[in-house]
Amino acid sequence: MLLHLLVLAPFAAAILMMATSKEDSKSSSRLAFLFGFTFVALSIALIAGGNQATEAVEWFRIPGAKGSVYYYLYSHGLGAWMVFLSTALSLVALVTGRNTFEKNYRNFAIAIFALMGAMNGTFLAADAVLFFFFFEAMVFPAAVLIAGFGGKERRKAAMTFAIYTLVGSAPMMVALWYLISIADNSLVLSLAVALQRLDTPMQTMLLSCFLLAFMVKTPIFPFHGWQAITYAEAPAPLTAILTGAMSKAGVFGFIAWILPIFPLSMELVDAMLWLGLLTAVYGALMALRATDGKKLLAFSSMSHLGLAVAGVFSLSESMLPAVLVLLVAHGLCAGAQFFLMGIAERFAGTRDIEQLGGLSSRNPVFSSTFGFIAVLSLAVPGTAGFVGEFTVLMSLWDMGPLPALAAGLCLILSAAYVLRFVQKVIFGKPAREYEDGKRMTALEGSSVGIMGILLLVFGMHPAFITNALQLFDESAVQEMDKVTHPAEVQESQTVEAVDDTTGEAIADENIAAVAQPMTEDDLQQLDSNLKANGFSDEERAQLIAQLKEMSEAEVADVEQPDGASETNEANVKEASENE
């Protein structure tokens, strides 16, 4: 039930938001906050509840497919934490959006809830077709938000974002269609089995189609052309969701769909690892020279996600917990930075860091929060970012010193551009005269502050995150196998039931065979042994009497069903005679 609520309830919330007044933003925001807090609470319950799954329900059939498409949701630690990022960042976006889009807040909230439902479906879908449906569905509410609430070039940004992501996913759709035409169904287990029957060139072609879709969504160099303009022109609350949650769908796809299904050669693993490191270094260098605050954060996000992809393809034992901690830390930290950059733009009227400066004297509360989050983004010891980046660095060291050296270079560059960012925005003198805009409200500040506190808590105790990890447990595999081979599973259960019954019968016979009263010879032998060990006549007599009672009671327990049956028959006969 919890999984259904997290996927379907946000769409229901979007529909209910249509009933609110477009003119009364206060009433719309109250209802949106109520829904937002509810979804965050549900996501926390999902993490605390461990791995969960719904029953696989047959949904529909695709022409040419061998099996059916199932509505089947499954939550493991990775998916549950991604859902938490989706709901938490959406809630903060609703909070900051109230002071930014007062006149059209209702429509903003409607699109945010629709985007949340699509993201949750992406992270919880256990059927490949269902996953692809939500994976593509995320594009439409995001594009609407960019086109409706973005900056001056919002239409161009929306078109670029939609074209890149939809075209990038088109080969994956064709590859998935081919896979389900030869597989029993579209669950992970069936796709992996069907793929093993194909020759190597076909496997490589299908793998390339999946990789392309996930590399565009992350994004990975050189498929990042949509990111800079999209993140810059999108409204800051949406950009926080795009970088903190939606971009994680690409890394999630590598872990939850590429690794379990496709056999990977070492050449491909090395290529993806170095492509991730190239993305990390490129993003850090671009952030170092950026003057647009939101583009700087966009390239910073690209760098960290490239590092995460490199960690995924290190394939070390510590890879999964390391990458998960890094993703959660990046989602919270990058999301908070985009929220604060949006507030700075609202206050100063620009996002050009060369035109900012001096905010520490004009807006000290905001500047303190901005500096606090910036320090956390440096991955200093005691923060979740430090745990994630250090463990990924150790995973890359297992691949050799060069990958670790490239990752270390990224960390040095990140410190350089973050400190430059802080110096340009909040220190020095104002670069121009402007009239102060809306300041950061207490609700906005507390929301961002809580995100910072979570980064510290997870840094001190990362087990809060890593303890939830178990990608596919035995129950999930059994459920997929039951859907794939229902006849075999039923036959196996029948055989097991027969074996259990037969085993119980044999055990009863064995007990009855050994649970016989002790003979006089046995008692005499026991009495001799007790006497030889110094027991008195009275003690020997008591022990032997107790053993006699216990032996007779065991035999009576084994014969109880028959005796009970005879007693019942006698009682019935006596009752009939009395009548």
What do you see in this structure?
By secondary structure, this protein is an all-alpha fold. 76% of the residues lie in helices and 2% in strands. It has 26 helices and 4 strands. It has helices spanning 2-17, 25-48, 77-97, 105-124, 128-137, 139-149, 154-182, 188-196, 200-217, 227-233, 236-246, 248-261, 266-289, 293-312, 319-348, 359-362, 364-377, 384-397, 401-426, 442-460, 463-466, 474-484, 486-514, 520-532, 537-558, 560-578, and strands at residues 52-53, 57-60, 69-71, 74-75. The strands form 2 sheets. It has a two-stranded antiparallel ribbon. Strands 2-3 form a two-stranded antiparallel ribbon. A hairpin with an 8-residue loop joins strand 2 and strand 3. The radius of gyration is 32 Å and the shape is globular. Mean pLDDT is 83; it is low at 505-515 and 561-576.
**Regions with little confidence, pLDDT below 50 for 5+ residues:** 505-515, 561-576
Order of helices and strands: HHEEEEHHHHHHHHHHHHHHHHHHHHHHHH
Global shape: globular
Cross-sheet strand order for the largest sheet: 1-4
How large a portion of the residues is in β-strands, by DSSP E?
under 5%
> What is the SS-derived class?
mainly alpha
Assembly state (oligomeric): single chain
- Please report the number of helical segments: 26
- Cα distance spanning the termini: 55 Å
On the 0-100 scale, what is the average pLDDT? Answer: 83
Estimated helix fraction: over 70%
Question: Can you summarize the main beta sheet?
Answer: 2 strands, antiparallel
Count the E strands: 4
Query: What gyration radius follows from the Cα positions, in whole Å?
Result: 32 Å
